[in-house]
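Final report, Chapter 2: Outcomes

The project's central promise was a pipeline that accepts a single protein chain and returns its three-dimensional structure in a standardized token representation, suitable for archiving and comparison. That pipeline is now operational. To close this chapter, we reproduce one record exactly as it appears in the project archive, with the input sequence first and the structure output second.
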Amino acid sequence: MYSLLQLELLIAVWGALSWRWWVMGLGLALMLWTHNYGVVYAVPLNALALVMVVVECRRKNIAVLATRPLTLLIAANAFALASWLPWLGVLSAQMREVAAGWWVPPITVGGVIDILHRITWGIAINLSLRSPAAILLFTLTVYAMGRAVLDADRRALFLTLAVLLPVAIGVVVSVLWKPMLVFRALLPITPMLYLLFGWAFTEGFGLRARQLVVLFAAPMIVVCLATYYPSIATMKGNPDNFIAMLDVGPDDVIYHMNEGSVMSWRFYAPDSWRQYMPPSEMWRNIGALTDATRRAMGFNMARLDDLPWRHAWLINSYGPTVVAAQDVEAARLLAKYPYRIILKEVNDVSGVEIYELFNPAYAK
């Protein structure tokens, strides 16, 4: 989803840089249609495109309002907006729904720094390396952006604004409305950030200095690649550790209370395990997948009472996006069937509970 948004943004940026305004309009329309964050990126994209038009007009000493590029820029936006208008009503309904049950924490300076850290390093850096990685990122960013300003290089300033404007818009909206600055939605700015780093450490340097940059960057890339797969299970909540706790038989089912645990368990659990989750008509958590998406991903949906099973391993993961109906159903199942507790891990924000339920129909 976010990779697609990143691709669409790059298409739109390329269209603006090459003055192919129809390409920019197409990329902008795709951004608006495929992701709500496309609205956020539309503002800096148009600001940067307008700056380019103004700079070019001043260079040629012509009036901005009389130029064809400005007319084509407006036309590109009109096309994107007209194609997106049918979706506006859906977006308004979504915003009203999520506003009633918001879960993103308030924005802080540390939160913004953490978001930049995440979009740069992802989950490739384990806990022992996060502090040096954060210091390195802060140093690189200050140096690159500072050099762009001091050198007044238009290319570097373009990249700097392309990185900062989406973050700034997210901060402003978070302060004026609801916190909405989440790191996944800022992933599309990473190509511009990496290009800015590349410019800062190669532009104006000789061959020997560039070779030193490569020698410095290579170990970081190796560390990221080497720690990615060991770290990803931890970032996904250690499903492999939970799965190892279960002694699942051929007549048993794994019953997830929401798709959060299904998303990770299905890649770590044996294919022979029968895994289910409740159908959407029972409840829908905030940000839940649609039924079409669940079917496309191969999720099995059924009520536990309607399934044949000897033991049911109940996986109840929860957090701020979980609605009360899930808690009610989990309590009902625990009241109806005998069970034993396998695991309970709870913190201030989220938790996971695993129970082994026994079906009285199989009792001797």
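Archive annotation: The mean pLDDT is 82.
This record, like all others produced under the grant, will remain available to the consortium after the project formally closes.
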